[in-house]
C-alpha cells in the first residue's frame, strides 16, 4: 500500500549495497509492476463483465423479440355489396358479421382454386385472426368502395402465425377450439399457393394495443407516443429543477437545519420505492389537482418526482468535483458568485449532469410500477392523440406499461410482442442516449 | 383571448423589455458600458423579469381560482329542485361544463353563431343532437336547467377571461414600466437579477421537501387506519409474514422483520456485485482506456441501466436461476432448493446497478485535476498507485454518493425480486433460499384482490411508511457520518 | 441567465397546460380493477370501440382491491366508472362507498372463471387427482396417528399410490390473489373434510374456526411456492421445473395447450362445458360494478355495460366464451338488470 512513499528513502540505502541498473528491475519494482498489471487487468475484466452481461441480455432480447416484427397474412380480394354492408351495420356485433362475410368469400375462393386438403368453414374461422375491426374500419371510411373488389391483406390467427415463425411446432399441437392439427395442412397449402405469406409487421410499430384475443392487431406505436410525451414532461421539468436545486445546495446554501433537511430528503427520496410515487401521484395530481386519469402529463409529473433525486445526486457530485481553483479564478477577476457558477462551474460539470440525466431518464423510461396507480397500465388503446397539447392529457399508455401488460397475457404471441416492445424501447432509449452523449462529448475535458 | 396568446404576448413584451432596458442603460452611460454598475444584459433581464414575474403569477392564480369561482356561482343559481333524483350537484356541474364546452366548440367550428349559442332553448332545439353533429358526445339529454346553467357558465367565463386578459397584460405593462423607468446606470441591476435567480434556486431545492410532505400525507391516513386494525407491536417485531386472503383461521400474521431482512440481504449481495465491478470499470475507463474505447464502452454500459427491470426479472428467472441451481442445487453442492433465491435476485440486481456505480464514478474520477495525477506520477508512483492513493481519495465523496444511489435503487427495486427471489418471506442466513423484500410486498398487497379496508391491503401503506422512515433515519446517520469524516480538499 | 428564464417559463407553461386540462371533460369510459377480469374487459373494450362510435374504454389493471378502492372514492369525472372484481364486493366496502357518496352501484356478473391444475407437457401426468390428494400434499400439518405433525409427504406417490412418483413441487397463487381464496375453499378445505382431518381436528379440541385455519394452512418448507405474479410467471416456473404442477385459469391453460398438460379433478377434465354444468368443482364468478350516478354523464357507459353482457359478447359462442370465460347461465337476468339499472340496494329489497 505504501510502496510509493516507502521506496523513496529506501532506494539510496539499497543503492549503496549493490549497483542498480535502469535496465534491470529489482524485486521491488517487479512487484510493483505486477501489481500495476493486475490492477489494470481487474479494470479490464470489470468492463468486460459489464459488456458480457449486456451482450447476453441483448442476445436474449433480440432472439425473443424478432418474431414480433413479422406477421403472416392472408391475401384475398373481397367484394362487399351494399346489402351486406347494411346487414352488418344493423347488428350489435358488426365486426363479427364482416368477418363472416370475409370467411364466406375465402371459402368460395378456395373452392374455385380447388384446394386438395379437406377443410370446413370452422377451420377458416380458426386460421383467420380477428379481422372484423379492420374490415369495418375500411368500409365505414370508404363507402364508395362497396360493390367493388378490394384487395385485403389481413392477419392470421396467432397460432398460424406462430407456426410459420417457428414458435409452435407441429408435434406440440394439441387439438383445441383454437387450432386443429389438420389446420396446419391447410395452412401449408395456402402458403405454398401464395394466398398466405409472411411480411413485415408495420402494424406492430404503428398500431395501438388490442384485446387479448387479437395478438395480430397489437402494436406499440401509440404507447411510444405516450412515452414520448412523458419524457418531454420529465426532461423539461426534472433537468432544470434538478440542476437548480443542486446548484443551490452545492454553491449557495448556508449550512443550516433547512439545508440539512433538504439534503436528507433528497437522498431519502432516491430510496423510496417507485410505486409509492404512484400512490402520491394518484392522491395529489388526480384526486387533489383534478388532472385527467391515464394521462401522460400525470405520468410525466410522477416520473419527474421520481428521477429528481437521481439527477440532483449526480449533479451535486459533478459540481463538487469541479476544482475550487476555477471558482477562485472567476471570483478573482471580479465575477459575482452567480456568474462564477453559471459561466464557469456549470459548463465544466456538464458531463456529469448529462450522465445523471441519462441514467435518470432511462430509469423513468423503463418504470412501470408508478404508472400502475395512475391508470396507464392495463388496456389503453385510444390510438394517437389529436394534437400536440392533447397528447399530454389524452389517455395513453407507455412502453414499459405496454410490455408489462403483454408479458402477462396468456397467448404466447404476446410474449414475443413484449420482447419486440423491449427492442423498440431500447431503440428509443439509445436515440435519447446518443443525443446526450454527443452533448457530453462536447463538454468533456480534463484539467 | 386564449391563454397561449396571453403568454406569448407577455413573453414578447419581456423580450422587448430586455432589448429596451439594455439600450436605456447603455444610453444613460453614453454608450460606455464601463460606466454601468452591471453588465448591460442585467438591465435588460431585470426589465424582462419585472414584466414576467407578476403577470405570470397573476395568470396562474387566476386560472386556478376562476373555474372554482364560476363553478360555485353557477352551482348556486341551480335550484335544488331541478337536480334529477340520484344526481349530485357535482355531477350535474360536470354536465354543465360539458355542454358549455360543446357550445364553445360549436361556435369555434362555425356550426353556431355566438348569438345562437347564448340564445338557443331546449324547447326549440335538441341540443344533444345539434352538438352530436359536430362530434361533441353528451351523456344525456340536455334539460333546460343544465342549458341555462351552461349558458351562464359561458357568460361568466367569458367575462372572467376578459378580466384576466386585462389584469395580466396590465400587470405586465406596469412591471415593464416600473423596471424601465428605474433603469439607470447607477441602478444595481445585477443584484436584482441574482436575487430573483436565487429565489428560483431555493424553490427548486424545496420541491424535494414538498415531495416528502406529499408522500407522508398520502400514506399516513391509511397507515393509521392499519394500526387501528392491527397491533403495532406485532407489525414491527413479528417474525412471521403470512397474510391470509380471507382472514380465515386466526387471521394474518404481518411481521415486517423478515421483509426487512430480505431487503437488506438482497441489497447487500447486489452491492457486493455492483460496487467492485462498477468501480473497477470506472477506473479502467477513466484512467487506462483510450478515448475511443471509452467513448464506446461507457455508453454501452449505461444501456444496462435502461433495460426495463422486467427483462432483468425474466433473465433472473429463466437464465441465472437454473444456472445457479445446476451448480448449487441437488445435483451440485446441494445448498439450493429452487432457482429463485436471494442469490439469483442479488446477482442480477447487481448487474443492473453496475452503471449507477461505474458511470457516475467515472465522471467524478475524470474530474480529479490532472495536476494531482501528474504530481504523483512525477514522484515515481505507478499508475495504479496513483489511482489508489491519490485519485480515489480525492474522488471519494462523489463515489460514496454513487454507491448510496445504487443502494437506494436496490432497496426500491421490485420486479427483479418478484421474479428472481420468490414471494416467500423468510428469516434465514442461507443466500440460496427464497426471500422477499418490503418493496415487492408493497406492490403485491397493493395490487391484490383482498378487501380494500382489510389489514392485508392497508399493510402496504404501513410498509411504505416504515421503509420511508427507516431510510430517512439511515440517511440522517449517513449525513452525520459524512460530515464528521469528510476530508476537505479545498 | 437564459437557463433561469427557461425554468421560469417552463414552470409557467406546465401550470397553464395543467389547468387547461382540468376544464376538459372526459369522453371515455374509465374502468379499473382485477387483473383476472382484465383480459375479458380488454376484449370487450376493443370490440366496443370497433363497433360503436364511442371511444375505446380505458381498462386499468391493478387488482380488485385497488379498483374497488378507487371506485368508492366518490363520484365525478376524476373517479372511475366501472370496477372489475374477481370476487363479490364486501359489505364493508359498500359502506365505505356509500360514505363517499357512491350509493347506487349496479352489480354485474359476467360469467365464471375455471381454475385448473396443470403440469409441463413433458412432465408426469396427473390423472387421478382428488381434492384430498392436494390437501395431503400441500397442507402444513397433517394428522398422523391422531397427532398433528409437520407434513411428512415428499412425493406425490407418498400421498396416493396412483399418482406419479415425483417430488412435490406446487406453484399456487399467492395470498394476494383472489384465486387463492377459491383454492383454499374449494380444494384444500374440501380435501380436508373428505379425508376426515377436519373432524379429527375438531375432536382433538380445536374450535371449528381453528380447524378451518389449519386445513387451509399451506406448508412452508419449499414444496409449495406462492406466486404473487401472473399466470405467465407460474408458466415460467413450470417451464424450468418438469415435475412441478401449477394453478392456472382455464383461459390461460387453453391458450397454452402446447406447453401445459391439465390434471383432472375427481376424474373430470376442466372445460367450459364441465364447469358450467358443475361437474368440475373449482370455479368462481367474476363481476364488474357500475356507478349508476355516472350513467348518462359519461358517454357510452351504459352502452358499454349492455354490450358487455349481450348474448353476442358474453353468451356461448361469443368472443368471451371463445377465449375461455364460462358463460353465466343466468345471463338474461343480468341483461335485464343492466337495462333497468337495478342497483344493489334495490336488489336486496
Automatic annotation (TrEMBL), chain A:
Can you supply one Gene Ontology CC term for this chain's record?
A: plasma membrane
Protein's UniProt keywords contain Ribosomal protein: no
Kindly state which keywords UniProt assigns to this record, in alphabetical order: Cell membrane, Membrane, Transmembrane, Transmembrane helix, Transport
The GO annotation for biological process reads:
phosphate ion transmembrane transport
Localisation: Cell inner membrane; Cell membrane
Q: Which topology term describes how it sits in the membrane? A: Multi-pass membrane protein
Task: List the molecular function annotations (GO) for this entry.
Answer: phosphate transmembrane transporter activity
One of the Pfam families matching this protein, by short name: DUF3333
Q: Which SUPFAM superfamilies match?
A: MetI-like
Question: Where does the sequence pass through the membrane?
Answer: 41-62, 228-249, 269-291, 297-319, 340-362, 418-439
Q: Indicate the segments forming the ABC transmembrane type-1 domain, all copies.
A: 224-436
Q: What NCBIfam families does the record tag this protein with?
A: 3a0107s02c
PANTHER family for the chain: PHOSPHATE TRANSPORT SYSTEM PERMEASE PROTEIN PSTA-RELATED (PTHR43470)
What family is this protein classified in?
Belongs to the binding-protein-dependent transport system permease family. CysTW subfamily.
Q: What is this protein called?
A: Phosphate transport system permease protein PstA
Which species is the source of this protein?
Psychromarinibacter sediminicola
Designated gene of the protein: pstA
TrEMBL record, chain B:
> How the protein sits in the membrane?
Multi-pass membrane protein
Keyword Transport: yes or no? yes
Gene Ontology cellular component annotations, sorted alphabetically? plasma membrane
The protein's matches in Gene3D superfamilies, at most eight in alphabetical order, are given as: MetI-like
Q: Which GO terms describe its biological process?
A: phosphate ion transport
Q: Which GO terms describe its molecular function?
A: phosphate transmembrane transporter activity
Which InterPro entries has this protein been placed in? MetI-like (IPR000515), MetI-like_sf (IPR035906), Phosphate_PstC (IPR011864), PstC_N (IPR022182)
Key word Ribonucleoprotein present: no
Where is the protein situated, by its record's location annotation?
Cell inner membrane; Cell membrane
* Ranges of residues in domain ABC transmembrane type-1: 260-478
Record's Pfam families? BPD_transp_1 (PF00528), DUF3708 (PF12501)
Q: Which UniProt keywords apply?
A: Cell inner membrane, Cell membrane, Membrane, Phosphate transport, Transmembrane, Transmembrane helix, Transport
Q: Name the PROSITE patterns for this protein.
A: ABC_TM1
Transmembrane stretches in the record are 45-65, 162-180, 200-221, 264-285, 305-328, 334-357, 390-411, 457-482
Q: Which domain of life is it from?
A: Bacteria
Q: Which family does it belong to?
A: Belongs to the binding-protein-dependent transport system permease family. CysTW subfamily.
The role this protein plays is: Part of the binding-protein-dependent transport system for phosphate; probably responsible for the translocation of the substrate across the membrane.
Can you say what this protein is called? Phosphate transport system permease protein
- What is the originating organism of this protein? Psychromarinibacter sediminicola
Q: Gene name, please?
A: pstC
From TrEMBL, chain C:
**The keyword Iron appears for this protein:** no
Pfam families per the record? PBP_like_2
Q: Which domain of life is it from?
A: Bacteria
The UniProt record lists the PBP domain at 19-312
Q: Which UniProt keywords apply?
A: Signal
Q: Which Gene3D superfamilies match?
A: Periplasmic binding protein-like II
Signal peptide location in the record? 1-20
By its UniProt entry, which SUPFAM superfamilies does this protein fall under? Periplasmic binding protein-like II
This chain belongs to the protein called: Substrate-binding domain-containing protein
Record the organism: Psychromarinibacter sediminicola
